Amino acid sequence: MKGNHIGELEELILLTVGILQTEAYGVAVLKELSDQTGRSVNISAIHAVLNRLEEKGFLNSQMGGATNERGGRRKRVYTLSASGRSVVDEMKAMRDKLYSQLPPLSYNFSV
Amino acid sequence: MKSQKPTSPPRWADRLLEFYCNPRLLEQIQGDVHELYYWRLSEKGEKQAKWAFWWDIIRFFRWRNIKRSTTQQQQFNSTGMLKNYFKIGWRNLLKQKQPSLINILGLAIAIACCIVAYLFIEGNWLKGMYHENKDHIYMITHTATENDEVTQFGYLSSPLANVIKENFPSVKYVSRINNARVVVNCKNENFSQFVQYVDSQYMDMFTYNVLYGSAQALDDPNQVIVTESVAQKFFRDEFPVGEEIRVYINGEAKAVTIGAVMEDLSNVAMFNFDILLNNQLLNSTTSLDENWEKSSWTFLQIEEEGSSVELLAGLKRLVDIHNEMDQDNKYLGIQLEPMMGLSRMAEQIEGGAANGANLAPQIVLAAIGIFMLTLAIFNYINIAILMATKRVKEIGVRKAIGVKRSQLVFQFLTENLITCLISITLGVLIAITLFIPWFNDMATTNLKVDLLNDPYIYLFFGGLLVFITLASGAYPAFYISSFKPVDIFSGKQRMSSKSVFTSVLLTFQFVLAIITIISGIAFVQTNNINHNRDWGYDNSSKIVVNLPSDKEYKEIKNELLQQSQVLGTAGSMDLVGRNISETTVKIGEEEMEVDFIRATANYPDIMGFRLSEGRLFNSAMATDITNSIIVNRTFMDWYNLEFPVEQTVTIDSNEMNIIGIVEDFHAENFAFSINPVVISALPDSNMHYLTIKVAEDQTEVMATFVKELWHEKVDNDIYNGIVQAEMFDMYFFEMKGLRNTMLFTATLAVILSAMGLFGLVSLNINNKMKDFGIRKILGATMFQLSKIIVKRIVILWAIGCLIGGLLGSMAIGALLDSVYSFHSGVGALPLFFAISFLLIVILLTVSMQLVKVKNSNPVDTLRIE
Fold it and tell me: Which residues of chain B lie closer than 8 angstroms to A27, CB-CB?
């Protein structure tokens, strides 16, 4: 299916949202991403990807509670949708399948 | 934990985000960046956090996040709204009649001034724009070397016109044009007229409004076309077409008939002439078709746009043809210049059809227009702000029911548009009925507002309308719409007429008024001084006449000398006061250009030049005629000579001795400074002018007598006799015109600023009526009450005087320098007079309003309605 193809950053963020469960909003995703993978991404890029994923139907969102750091502003909280979950599964399955076909590393220098 | 006193994110970055961000996305985005900021603040320190914040804001600037108007916001009933704005605007105009009238009248007067200035300037730059084929008409010019420099000349060898006509099918019409001043005889009366000799296709090329007769009249070489005013001069009430006149061409009288009468030429017309004649009338004597040394202005009209390409390719061939025929004056190239570009190229083309536009009067007129407009606009701003005081409640209500500020601004600008439209209409009327006729009389121009043919004037009006609407309306609209409804209804919002802005505008008006008054007075003063200036010689009891030839010169002279009232006559080649030749003189190795008067030996004596040293000519001495000269004082000063002079002066390789020195005299009008003058004596024959000295008080009688005698003896020339004392009358007339313009400007400026002040004070007093009422009850005298109003205005007046006086004396001094060679500058008198005059006007204006305070009864003003 053509629409199911997603990019690498999209995949990472999709996974991160899944990990964070009900606490996934822009800054949280950013922090989680940099903690887990060491990648520092600009917040605007994260917003853009989150929006894109929501448009594709892989994420759902709603306005969440306000906190003090945000000056009383509410945040948009994302959750993984069913199709989002299946995309993640599909990606993993595909990678595993491809990986399993990889020949074992042979340190044969004679060739 | 964050620090105790958290610093907030950069305010400007935050504002930027709020400015561009889509309101629907703002909350989440702003929340995230703020959260990030505080996190970075605790992790990395303030500086980095701030930079990162800025960077985030900038990175968020993406198409998705940017605010844009949605269809929902645009669904207003604009037509109904606009209709309502116009209605409210109109009612407001009517409600406050006096201030509205001041605004409209002031603007209208200023606009009328601008229209005159515009028409004058347009006439200089858009010459020829009424001709229908203006974009297809080109002037043919040529380049040649003159004094080792390549110069472009506006004329072309006359026979080339025929070559062009025969060889280029894309050329529709060609016409050669020659200008001349000729003597025309009509019903035994001689007139001197400016004529243009043209080819018959001229009338097809240039569109003129022919009133009577046929536009094709010139096809017959013996027919001419005259302008309406000339026809009126020649024939008065008679029907001119078909009548016969005689034209003297190169001394030969030719009878021609009037073929058509055309409308007088406007200021914007390409050419200036009284009569159109066919070139063939010239041909018999000078042969334009064969004589390659004769040149004329040559204009051609191409068939259509783009067909000039073929023509341009063929120009090289024309150069070869010409150079073969006329080997002495070789052309380097031939060019086509579009007719509409000629005004702009006037400086570049030698002897072209457009004169170099004289910038000085254009600048003066434009400056006057701008001065007036500034004054009127400032009046408007001041009064509009005060007028709005009566409407603050309306503004409050509008704002309370959700009108945005931009809509209020728009409303005020719409109302302003009404005022400006009325003003422009009124301004055009004032210009057409009053200003333009006045200006035409004074400056002898033929300006007119041509609404049918002039597309540019609509551009001008449109531009003016937009400019005035915005310039006068923008500030009041923004200022008034900034009030907060809460303040308005709680009564806190007081309109303060003491705002700095109002004061600055008022001061600026005073400055402009002072400058114009100074200029008016300075010009009056200078004109008076020049009127009474000593001419440097005895100009009374003298009549000068022109003489076409030696025969008439002798006859008239001998006849006159028999009259008892004639005290003496002298002949001269030059006319002192009008027409002086110039020559180069050499003393030793030093060369100099000097004025050169050649006359009979008794001329200095008859003219009454004042001898300073040496002696005048003695006609009995042969050496006086051949190698003696008299010089003026300036000549001696320039050369640093002492009398008696031992060196000789070389003029045309003749060695001359200086035998006498006369005091300086004005050989030309006062626009020119006194040059070194050399007077040399000639034998008494073949003179151009005869100066007749008559007995005292007999000048007028003798002037008539001389004229009659002259007409008896001469029949094919124009009588140019003049009384010596009236020599500068033309000049004085011109200067009077200039003086009147300046006085007129000053009057208008004073009236405009007084009107503005009147309106301002009137509104101010109305706002303060309660204040005055209380003061009156408490026993304030009229003097104390006036002081409240007058004090501030007088301070502004003082500041205005200081600035205006300084600027005025510099600017007007420079202006006087450029107009007069002799003037007393801007002295203390004009300054003092200007300052006190303005003060009187200010006090009068204010006191007219103070009467209202004086007559007011506190009971009326303090009663609560």
Answer: 32, 35-36, 39
Residue B28 forms contact with A (CB below 8 Å): yes
Spans of all domains in chain B: 11-68, 134-350, 359-528+733-862, 542-726
All domains of chain A in start order, with CATH: 7-100 (1.10.10.10)
Mean pLDDT across chain B = 83
Q: How confident is the model at residue A17 (pLDDT cuts 50, 70, 90)?
A: very high
Contact (Cβ atoms closer than 8 angstroms) between residue B286 and residue B294: yes
* Interatomic CA distance for residues B102 and B377, integer angstroms: 11
Q: Select from B604, B626, B606 the least CA-distant residue to B616.
A: B604
Q: Categorize the per-residue pLDDT at B4 as very low, low, confident or very high, splitting at 50, 70 and 90.
A: very low
Nearest residue of A to residue B55, measured between CA atoms: A42
Inter-CA distances, B175 with B152, B171, B300, B851, Å:
20, 11, 6, 72
The predicted complex's ipTM stands at 0.85
Residue B342 near chain A (CB below 8 Å):
no
* A76 contacts B59? CB cut-off 8 A: no
| 3-state SS string for B394-460 | HHHHHHHCCCCHHHHHHHHHHHHHHHHHHHHHHHHHHHHHHHHHHHHHHHCCCCCCCCCCCHHHHHH
The stretch B340-366 carries a mean pLDDT of: 76
Q: Which of A3-17, B155-169, B464-478 has the highest mean pLDDT?
A: B464-478
Distance, in angstroms, between B788 CA and closest chain A CA? 52
Residues from A in contact with B at Cβ < 8 Å: 25-27, 30-31, 42-45, 47-48, 51, 63, 66-67, 69-71, 73-76
Token digits of residue B658: 């200086």
- Our separate counts of H helices and E strands in chain A read 4, 2
**Record: contact A74-B31, CB cut-off 8 A:** yes
Q: Which of B30, B38, B55 sits opposite A73 (nearest CB)?
A: B30
Q: Band the pLDDT of B3: cuts 50, 70, 90.
A: very low
C-alpha distance from A98 to closest chain B C-alpha (Å): 37
3-state SS class at B699: helix
